[in-house]
Amino acid sequence: MIGSLVYQDYINLINKKLIINENITRNQIQPSSIDLSLSEECYEIKNSFLSYNSKVRYKLKDLAIKKINLNKEYVFKKNKTYIVRLNENLNLQNNIFGHCNPKSSTGRLDIFCRSLVDYAEEYEKIPKNYIGEIFLEITSRSFDIAFKKNNCLNQLRLINTKHNYLTDKQLINFNKKQKISNQDKKSIKIDNGLKLSVDLSKSNIIAYVAKKNTPILNFSKIKSHKINDFWNTITNNTKKLIIQKNKFYILKSKEKVIIPSNLAGEMIPYDTGIGDFRAHYAGFFDPGFGLSNGSYAVLEVKTNEVPFLLDDGQTIARIKYEKLNKNSNVVYGKDIKSNYQNQGLKLSKHFK
């Protein structure tokens, strides 16, 4: 069946050695994606690159500043760029292709990462029937962060033959039978997917903004870092917020999102037409996210060009819905110890 693969498909691909990692764990397999993990092989590099005419390894010979062994924790310095080989190799067949995205926890730490593969002209894209290694380029933009082998920063979603996105008309009709948001039918905004707007309406905390000088964050340590060491909180009752240049903000959507168990979602930027204004880093929503009452989407916001005024209710992202190739028997939620089900304005899992 055409569409995004589900949990059992990834099990089958691993068993058939089409996804290759001898030490892969079940925890890496999600309802419609798979977490990819860092190997010990890491390089600090001079600059970003794509390897459209060669293997990534050949390019690294000229661009690597130094080689780093991630068997021990190593601190990735803020705004320095590194590339790490991932533990997982691919041996895809039968017109299966894929694309990658940062994991939600990665995006919420302002870690800019993107995958690259041999002979590819784009980041994050896994060509049909790709055979070879995957590398991950990593730049931490707000914090110095300690990483080590087997940390999972990004994830891969595989698709059989072609994407099977719902049109707006199909999404509207679907929403009549099975809700995709907590909004009523009159107020829901569907235009090239479900539109998401920013919530600045509360008089308590409406946003977190990353501090400039912070301790080292250990990526392996969950629920162990003090929020006040890394974040300032923002409160106001003006229903406006100026996004300052080069500062990183965590906000949340007004709308609660629901991803039914037979669909997958992907958050995509809302094109403001003003240049480099990022409304999110991480993109994948697995089937079951938000069941049954909906969960807010966390919005990671940054502008690198000019300060940008946000108003309460302003659209800054959208979710496209995609059919799975079959119903998933595993869904996002407490049964698989998902971190962000029923979330509000929530920082990454690393904080107490």
Jot down its keywords.
352 residues, mainly beta, Deoxyuridine 5'-Triphosphate Nucleotidohydrolase, Chain A, five-stranded antiparallel β-sheet, 2 domains, 27 strands
Please give a structural write-up.
There is one protein chain. The chain has 352 residues and is mainly beta. It has two domains: 158 residues, Deoxyuridine 5'-Triphosphate Nucleotidohydrolase, Chain A, CATH 2.70.40; 161 residues, Deoxyuridine triphosphatase (dUTPase) (Deoxyuridine 5'-Triphosphate Nucleotidohydrolase, Chain A, Distorted Sandwich), CATH 2.70.40. 10% of the residues lie in helices and 37% in strands. The chain has five helices and 27 strands. Strands 1, 3, 9, 11 and 15 form a five-stranded antiparallel beta sheet that branches. It has a five-stranded antiparallel beta sheet with strand order 5-4-7-13-10. Strands 19-17-21-25-23 form a five-stranded antiparallel beta sheet. The chain is globular and about 55 Å long.
Topology, number of strands = 27
Strand content: 35-45%
**Helical fraction:** under 10%
- So what's the oligomer here? single chain
Q: How far from one another are the termini?
A: 43 Å
User: By helix and strand content, what is the structural category?
Assistant: mainly beta
Major beta-sheet overview: 5 strands, antiparallel
CATH top level of the largest domain is: Mainly Beta
What is the CATH topology of the largest domain? Deoxyuridine 5'-Triphosphate Nucleotidohydrolase, Chain A
CATH superfamily of the largest domain: Deoxyuridine triphosphatase (dUTPase)
CATH architecture term of the largest domain: Distorted Sandwich
The number of helical runs is 5
Task: Write down the domain tally.
Answer: 2
Stretches where pLDDT is under 50 for at least 5 consecutive residues are none
Based on Cα principal axes, name the global outline: globular
Kindly provide the radius of gyration, computed on alpha-carbon positions and rounded to a whole number of angstroms: 20 Å
Estimate the mean pLDDT confidence: 91
